[in-house]
Design goal:
The structure holds two protein chains of two kinds. By secondary structure, chain A is mostly helical. Chain A is about 70% helix and about 0% strand. In chain A, strand 1 and strand 2 form a beta hairpin. In chain A, helix 1 crosses helix 13 and helix 12 packs antiparallel against helix 13. Chain B is an alpha/beta fold. Chain B is about 45% helix and about 15% strand. The chains are: A mainly alpha, B alpha/beta.
Chain lengths: ~280, ~450
């Protein structure tokens, strides 16, 4: 417990306190930070761009969850089957898991190139569009690329969970005449409840930290179309060297992250959770 | 250790609740993270030098050469990827680990170092080294100066931005010569459109290619003074008529279909814009000379077959700027940390003045197809392209440093975003100027 606590203090709590402190200073990273009161907070909280970034982040969270959860459950449950061909497919599905975000982003950037991308390669002019340069589509394209990257991970969670469901439940339901659909909705899905909570928590809180993939794909553009809060923080802190204002954004992110995590645990009854194996 | 069961439960629960938020906290960690690295040198006259991997092939042999003949004052060199370097040096330069020789791009970053007193004024040290300073092209030496004092000395090749053309594409459409004026370029745009090719390739997905159009147009329209006023933090300097007019000309060119379809998704970092011009899908490309080396990878015979044509950026009728002016990246520079001891400063100056821009330094650079920022290097260059560009540099009264490098980091970040909005038609020239005016003095 003690080493874990020490790590947690050193890498989570202390930097957080430092960031909170820095949010009340003006600091360019070169000279000593200068205390400037709540100036950064006022400027960030009165800037419509901060709210725009928050709104984009909110869209990323909600849409990511809506896209990734059903896909992951379906793939996870499918892969949990014992047939050999499923093992082969599983290996393919999980491929994105071993790729770095930057590599994925670079690959997709090339695939989505309007002149040399996948649309051009297969002569599908429908696909040859200004995907990443469009104010309307860019955000959704980014969300889909994120989904492509993370669905395998969540599928893996669901696969493991689905394999844990006792076979006796399915056998019993079969005797009662339940079909596959009925089994899925009445046995599999309820038994995956805890995993859904875990996966959703990771997905939603994780959505707050997507940065690398967006940075490589669009750099937050075109204009501000994909400048989500974590990216806004990076650009403010490391491109514009305004670490005071960036710290404000970092603290806002932490507050939102904590609030969501706490709300999720409350709502889902995560803290009262018991094993599904009991009584099976 | 024995903890009562009840308290252990609550404790466990608190930690469990916090765990999902660790990911978010990690962001804060990044903000507070400090750069490490050892700048320690073995002897008192020895020193550390930090540079980028991009220029390693030029710098490494010259330092090895120095170390061989100066065992008492060795230089320990380290190289980092460009973006890593930028992050690392920023945290290190004001720490005890600061390297003595600091690589930088001049302009806005150098100014922030000078303002914070982190680099030395080299003017007195270089006063009796005329043999060395006179070798360098004056307009390139200027980018290392702030308020007339030299804080940085060029160490890498020079890379202005030029207009590349696919001679084949132009000839097929009936265009024989490079456009000398903006109006000629606009006429060529219409001709090429009728011929069914994209007139100009632009890598808008990478953002930075946008600025080359802006910096050249403003220079042609209003001369170098416009940018000087902006850098001097004159209030509302971005509202200069030259800026507004240039922004309008850019939007008119976009509306006229001057750039390829979907230019905002085309990446210049992967040379997708260069590929359009080289493969004959576009006629023109405005790019830095660094793009030249990429041509061969796309089409090995392109240059050999005489398809490449290069010209300076066109003149603008009635503009105040000299059409011979060029813009781009004059060089990358060495500065000396103000934390350096007198002995280390002496070593650094001796190294720079004897081992940089000597014959072997020049020839290493020329061997890689690069152009040293040295006067009269023309005859030694190995390609027509390099020779032509070298002539442009020699003839240029002013070498404007790329605006993103010249501006302060804050203004530069905003500049990229505002250009993105301008090119996509999401903001007007007036809004562009207004938003940029807000960055003045920051």
């Amino acid at each position: 417990m003690l080493p874990a606590l020490a790590m947690f203090l050193a890498f989570a709590i202390i930097p957080l306190v430092i960031a909170l402190g820095l949010s009340f200073t003006s600091w360019d990273g070169l000279t000593a930070p200068e205390f400037n009161g709540i100036a950064n907070w006022v400027s960030r909280l009165t800037d419509p761009l901060t709210y725009h970034a928050l709104w984009l982040t909110f869209q990323v969270i909600v849409l990511s969850w809506l896209i990734q959860t059903p896909m992951s459950v379906l793939i996870g449950v499918f892969i949990a089957g014992k047939q050999r061909y499923r093992a082969v497919l599983a290996a393919l599905y999980f491929l994105p898991l071993i790729m770095s975000s930057a590599a994925i982003a670079i690959a997709f950037k090339a695939l989505l190139d309007p002149n040399y991308g996948v649309g051009h390669a297969f002569g599908l002019s429908v696909l040859s569009r200004d995907w990443l340069g469009s104010q309307t589509y860019a955000l959704y394209v980014v969300i889909l690329v994120i989904a492509w990257q993370f669905i395998p991970f969540h599928s893996l969670l669901y696969q493991a969970a689905a394999r844990q469901i006792p076979g006796s439940l399915y056998e019993a339901s079969q005797i009662d005449g339940a079909g596959r659909m009925r089994q899925f909705f009445s046995i599999t899905l309820p038994m995956l409840r805890n995993t859904i909570v875990t996966s959703s928590t990771l997905m939603i809180v994780g959505s707050l930290t997507y940065f690398d993939i967006v940075y490589v794909l669009t750099q937050g553009g075109p204009g501000y179309a994909t400048r989500i809060l974590p990216l806004d923080m990076y650009l403010t802190g490391f491109s514009a060297s305004d670490l005071g204002n960036a710290s404000v954004l970092a603290v806002i992110l932490v507050i939102i992250g904590l609030a969501i995590a706490l709300a999720l645990t409350r709502l889902s009854g995560f803290n009262r959770m018991t094993s599904d194996q009991e009584g099976a | 250790m024995k903890i009562p069961t009840s308290s252990r439960r609550t404790q466990g629960r608190t930690v469990k609740r916090l765990v999902p938020a660790i990911a978010a906290l990690a962001l804060a960690t990044t903000l507070a993270a400090c750069g490490g690295g050892t700048g320690a040198a073995s002897s008192s006259a020895g020193l550390a030098a930090w540079s980028t991997t991009a220029d390693r092939p030029n710098i490494e042999p010259s330092i090895a050469d120095w170390n061989k003949s100066h065992p008492e004052a060795k230089i320990s060199d380290s190289y980092f990827g460009t973006n890593d370097f930028k992050d690392k040096i920023r945290t290190a330069i004001n720490s005890p680990q600061a390297p003595t020789l600091v690589y930088n791009w001049g302009g806005g970053t150098l100014k922030s170092y000078v303002d914070a007193g982190l680099v030395k004024d080299l003017t007195p040290e270089l006063a009796d080294k005329k043999d060395f300073t006179d070798k360098i092209v004056p307009s390139i030496m200027d980018t290392g100066k702030i308020d007339g004092k030299t804080y940085a000395v060029p160490a890498s090749s020079t890379a202005p931005v030029v207009l590349y053309m696919n001679k084949d594409v132009l000839a097929k459409a009936g265009i024989q010569t490079a456009p000398a004026t903006w109006d000629e370029l606009l006429a060529d745009v219409q001709t090429l459109k009728k011929a069914g090719v994209a007139p100009i390739a632009l890598g808008g997905g990478s953002k930075w290619p946008y600025l080359m159009w802006m910096e050249y147009l403003v220079d042609r329209e209003g001369g170098p003074e416009v940018m000087k006023n902006i850098l001097a933090n004159k209030p509302n300097a971005w509202s200069d008529p030259a800026v507004i007019k240039s922004a309008t000309m850019i939007q008119d060119l976009v509306k006229a279909g001057g750039y390829e379809e979907g230019f905002a998704s085309v990446s210049a970092d992967t040379n997708a814009d260069l590929a359009l011009m080289v493969t004959g899908r576009a006629g023109f490309l405005l790019q830095g000379t660094w793009a030249y080396s990429g041509i061969e990878q796309i089409d090995a015979n392109f240059v050999k077959d005489g398809k490449l044509m290069v010209a300076p950026f066109p003149a603008v009728a009635g503009g105040k700027g000299d059409p011979k002016n060029i813009a781009g990246n004059p060089s990358v520079y060495w500065s000396i940390s103000s934390k350096a001891t007198d002995e280390q400063t002496k070593t650094a100056i001796d190294y720079i003045t004897t081992n940089v821009w000597n014959d072997s330094y020049d020839s290493t650079m020329i061997g890689q197809g690069q152009i040293p920022p040295v006067q009269g290097v023309g005859p030694k260059l190995n390609s027509d392209f390099s020779k032509q560009v070298e002539q442009m540099i020699t003839d240029a009264p002013n070498f404007q440093q790329s605006w993103d490098l010249a501006l302060s980091p804050k203004a530069s970040t905003e500049f990229w975003t505002q250009l993105d909005l301008l090119f996509s038609g999401s903001s007007t020239p007036q809004q562009f100027a207004d938003n940029m005016n807000k960055t003045i003095g920051e």
